[in-house]
Amino acid sequence: MRNKKFGFMGNFVAIFVVLIVLLIIFPLPTALLDMMFIVNLTVSFVILLTTMYIKEPLEFSIFPSLLLITTLFRLGLNVSSTRKILTNQGDAGKVIETFGKFVIQGNVVVGLIIFLIIVIVQFVVITKGSERVAEVSARFTLDAMPGKQMAIDADLSSGLIDEETARYRRLKIQREADFFGSMDGASKFVKGDSIISIIVTFINLIGGIIMGFMQNVGSFSEIMNIYSNATVGDGLMSQIPALLISTATGMIVTRSASENNLNQDMSKQFLSQPVVLIIAGSVMFGLMFIGFPPVQIIIVSVGLIALGIMLLQKQKKISKAVEEEMPSVTEEITSEASFYKNIENVYGLLYVEPIEMEFGYSLIPLVDEASGGSFLDRVVMFRKQFANDMGMVIPSIKLTDSGELNPNQYSIKLKGEQIAIGDVLIDHYLALAPSDTAEPIEGIDTIEPAFGIPAKWISEDKKSKAELADYTLIDPTSVIITHLAEVLKHHAHELLTRQEVGNILTNVKKQNAPLVEDIIPNVISIGDLQKILCNLLREGVPIKDMETILEVLGDHGANTKDTDILSEYVRQALKRSISHKFSSANQLKVLSIDAEIENIIMSSVKKMDTGSYLALDPNTIQAIVSAMGEEINKIKDLVPEVIILTSPIVRVYVKKLVDQFYQNIVVLSFSEIDNNIQIQALGNISI
After folding, report:
1. Fewer CB within 10 Å: N-end or C-end of the chain?
2. Mean pLDDT, to the nearest integer, of 233-245?
3. Cβ neighbours for 15, distance < 8 A, ≥ 6 positions apart
């Protein structure tokens, strides 16, 4: 029943197009032709108004196809009306007759001139402009596609968005490209329709005059009157809908994405400067003194001045209300002094934000959601991805503007102290060369802040050339987010507080409450658990598998309280995660350490009640570090990150020694490597 009910509506467009084609072949009764003209005019009005109320072009994505259908409809009506004009002594229905008499009004020459002016305006101004805008929009949309897709891929790989969001954004980009590409071609229909309307008009007039003489309709003046009325009426019934559709085409290709429709944007922005209206009204009033008609001038100028004064008073009322809500400086000082008389309120000043970002004033639009900035959403997606990868939730980030920074600078603070700073150009792209031999492009030399890679800031007009040269282009927001992500990954262990450990344990309790209750605090305290988890995060080891971590601590926590040793036991239990993180294609490229160095290190370990430390003499340290430096320099350009492989018993001490002299060196033990991982030694550290 449902299929039968909606069967006709589901095939309405196909049936309508077939009927349009039949219009060209079969003659229509005069009454039905009048009805079709009225339908055509109504549909044109509906399309024009729809383009004015949408917020972005993709909301009316069927417009190119609709443009073709309406153009075909008008051509079909043109053929039917021409048939009626030539075969029915100029009688093509009441609609055409009414339009013709209204425009001509008894003067054939004036009527034809007015009609020609309407046709020329439609063809030269509206149609030509819409065609050009559609062509440019299509070209720029297609040129921007690779950069937009690369930005989506970068966001996806960095974890800022998920696969579903990436798929939606790619689909939207593809739809935009298809839409503006279709509009580029569809605008040619409007141009062709305008040309054919002019041709049909001359055919109706000249052919009608010839048919009038052949059929002895009357005298020359009578024939001219009959067929000129019919010609102008038919032309207007074709040109007015075409003018509406052309205007709708211009509307939709010039419409940028907005939160409001065109009417709201126009009224909000056009009337936002009341002083302009007052000045314009005053200038118009002055034209009366050079001979302009005073009545009309007074109406227009007084109207503008009155509207400007009303809007100006309204703005002053709003400003006054805001000022009344804001206390004066004296009141603020008095109230502030009263507030801090309570010593408890002073303690509130001692709180330090875990993470804080400050921005120069030029970068505020990137952060401000009201200005279209997406920075906050990107931070939220990064927090989600980091929790999924590392098993820890990044705390909220406080965002503020700063007058101490340069306009294009931003800084990242950790617990009140600045740990990173960067510069971005809001209207440029950061271009990373694919290789040292890449084609040079013009831009501002800089260093990519997250990884220290040489790069260039390029303007929008250099974007296409950079993409063709295989440069990786990154927008300013992505540059900042990537820098923030890398900084937080390196300092995650400093952000793991005991409160956060408590939140993690509460989450584990939901799945395995007996495990948590058995281990915490009977075997190990929350403070020691925090130190162990920080040790793991410091070296980039995920703490997501908390059940395994707690089970290992339950097995070994009763035998030793040394958190470094307990961390090593946990690392060995997490060897699958560690192997997956640092290997590539089941292969691990490493530097090995000579047994002699390991023996020297082990013999220098001093144990205390609170832990153990390495006591090496300076000469030995210098020799070991020099040997490490030689081997690291040999392979640092061959592998993404240098990995040193040691025996389990000395791994923690080697790591502490390496961290004093080299950054971002990974130290693993044999017990932390999964059995299916192939180890390839690229060198051996020996003295």
Report:
1. N
2. 76
3. 8
